[in-house]
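Figure caption, in words: inputs first, then the predicted bound structure.
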Amino acid sequence: MRAFTPGAAIDKLDLFAGRLDQIMDVLRALDQRGQHVVLYGERGVGKTSLANVLAELNVTRGTQTARLPSVSVNCSKKDDFASIWYHLLRDLGVAPSNLEAIDLTPEDVRHALDAVKEPTLVIIDEVDRLDNASETHMLLADTVKTLSDHSSAITLVLVGVADSVEGLVGEHPSTERALSQVLMPRMSPVELGEIVDKGLAQMHMGIAPAAKARITHLSEGLPHYTHLLTLFAVQRAIADDRDDVQDTDVTSAITMAEKKAQHTIKSAYQRATRSTRPKSLFERVLTACALADKDDLGYFSAGAVREPMAAIMGKPYDIPAFARHLNEFASAVRGDVLTRSGQSRRYFYRFDNPMLQPYVILKAISNGLITEGQIRRLQIQRGAFPSAS
Ligand SMILES: Nc1ncnc2c1ncn2[C@@H]1O[C@H](COP(=O)(O)OP(=O)(O)OP(=O)(O)O)[C@@H](O)[C@H]1O
Ligand SMILES: [Mg+2]
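Bound structure (magnesium ion present):
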C-alpha cells in the first residue's frame, strides 16, 4: 500500500515517475527573476504530486547542491487571499507582527516577502477550489504582478485545473507575461511504466513485459489507474505466493478495479447509460467516447467517435447515428457525463470527470463489448502510443 497509492498524491521522489519536462519548466522560471508559474491540467493527472516533489529536489548552483527552499498551501473552499497568505508568510518566517490585525493586500505580501533573499518556491495548490472570478483570484493575479515588478526572490507556483487557470491569467495582460503556463498532459505509457517499475522495485518483485503493457495502456494516461491496477495485480500475485506479476494477475485486476470503483464513478456510469430498451446504444457510444482520440485537456470531436464506434459495432457508424446520444450525455438527463463546448457542428466534448473514462473502458472489457486487442489497435491508430511497446 506504500508502493502503490491510488488514493494519495506522491510525496517522495523515489516513487515519482516521469515529468522531467514539467520539472525543467518550473526550474527555468525559478532562475528567471520576475517569472512565476501556473501548473495546469485535467483533474487527476498528477499536479499535486509534482508540486510535492519540487520541494524534494536537490538543485546545484555553482558548486553548491541543496534542497530547494519551498513552502506550500492547499486552498479550500473557505480560503480567501488573507488566509492563504497568513499560512505561507508564517511558514516562511516573514509574517509581520501585526499580521492578524491588518487586512492583507498584495502590496503587504510583497513587502513581507522582500525579507526572503534566496530563490524560494511558494506553491499554492488547488486554486480551482477558490470561487472562480472571485476577489481572491484578482488579488492573486495582482500579487503575481507586484512580485514580478519588484523582482522578488520568490517564485510563485499556482496549481489547478485548466478552467481555473484561465480565470487567473485572464486578470491582466501583464500577468500573462509574468506567468509561465506549464501544461501537465496525461502521462505517457513510458512514464506510467516507470510507476509500475518503481513500486515493484520497492517490493523486490517483477512483472512480465506484456502484463505491464496492458496496465499502462488501459490507464489512459491517468496515473491513478496505474496504481490501482498494479496494486490489485500485486495482491493477487502475493496471494499465489509468487514474486512476479503475470498476465492472469492483470486480468483479475481489471475485474477488481471495475468492481471496486468508487461509488460516485459507478453511479455516474449508471446514470449516463441506463435505458428501458434492451438494445440501446448508450453504453456503446459512451465506450466509443472513452476510446476517442483526445487532446491534452481531454477534448474530442464527434468525428473521433466514429472509428471506435465502428470497432464496437462491427460495421461503419456515422455521426448522425450517435449524435442524439452525445447530446444527451451533455445534458442533465444523463447526469452531464460529458461537457460540451464550441459551436454547433463544431462541438468538442470531454468527460466531466476524467476518472470515469478509464472506468468505462474497463467496464466494456468486462461486459465483452470490446476486446483488449481491439482497444490496442484503436490506440495505435490514433497515434497515442507510437512505439506500441
Ligand atoms: N509522477 C507520478 N509518479 C507516480 N505516481 C503519480 C505521479 N503523478 C501522480 N501520481 C499518482 O496519481 C494519482 C493522482 O495524483 P495527484 O493527486 O497528484 O493528481 P492531481 O492532478 O493533483 O489531482 P486533482 O486534480 O484531483 O487535484 C495519485 O494516486 C498519485 O499517487
Ligand atoms: Mg491535486
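The radius of gyration is 23 Å.
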